[in-house]
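Continuing the batch. This is chain 6 of the set; chains 1 through 5 are on the previous pages. Same settings as before, nothing changed between runs. Recording input and output for traceability.
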Amino acid sequence: MSQNNFPAWQNAKQPYPKVTPPASIPKAYTAIGAKRAELLTGKKYRTRNYMVLTEKEVHPDGVSRAILEMNKEFEAKYASSWSGRHISRPMDLVRYFDWLYLTGSRKKEPFLKPYPKINIFKPKGFPWRIVKVTRVIEKSFANGERTIHEQNIPIFDVTEDKLWRKVLNDYETFELDDLFSSMEKHDIHNGLTGIIERNFHCNMREEATGRLLKDAPITPHALRHHRAYNLYIEGGLDKDLVTSLFGWRDDRMLDFYAYINRSAKGQQQLQALKKYAALVSPKKHA
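Output for chain 6:
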């Protein structure tokens, strides 16, 4: 070693010596995991792939029921035995998964400080309760700092109530710092995208080709645009309101996803037909 404690080859400004990369460790699968890996080989699941149920008749809680069904399948599978050593509390994964959907958050937004704050109230004259969420938006900045955004999310139906009850432990926990801190560590060390894709599945449609993907993994980002679909198409909320809830600067994102855009045009046609039908007399129907 030279006087400055660097190796002689560094002092002489010689090229770095070649280092042989370590051999990759082959993945070890369980019997079920091996079958799943074989099914996924060569397949790509993009964030713009969409649930097949969005092609069917619109129901106000259609997507939310699909999310709840994924919850139930996960819970049934791991109720007695949880093999995911990287997550000591499997229900935390469900709570985080549901949070991404209900708030339309990006994967890392719950980890940004200050952590999201939650309050539930029922404004006078409203038929439903409101979940007030104050959280940081990852890709929105003001004066060089990330924007803190406020969402007033209505609990429209029983399905959404069940999802919120899972996130908030039957409305007994409104402080979720521990959940988000824990899930952030899992994301850093294990990658939550892969964990979610391995554990939550539904029938999807490949946007690029129209191919049916049976029991396909759902990505964290897909939850975001499916929530937009749920509020805009299924819930019938105004475009400006959905844009405001998501913290978008304008409504272009609602046009970005082809299946949402198609559904919006289809809904507009049905509304126009409904008005026309009201003008047509019963005799003309006959």
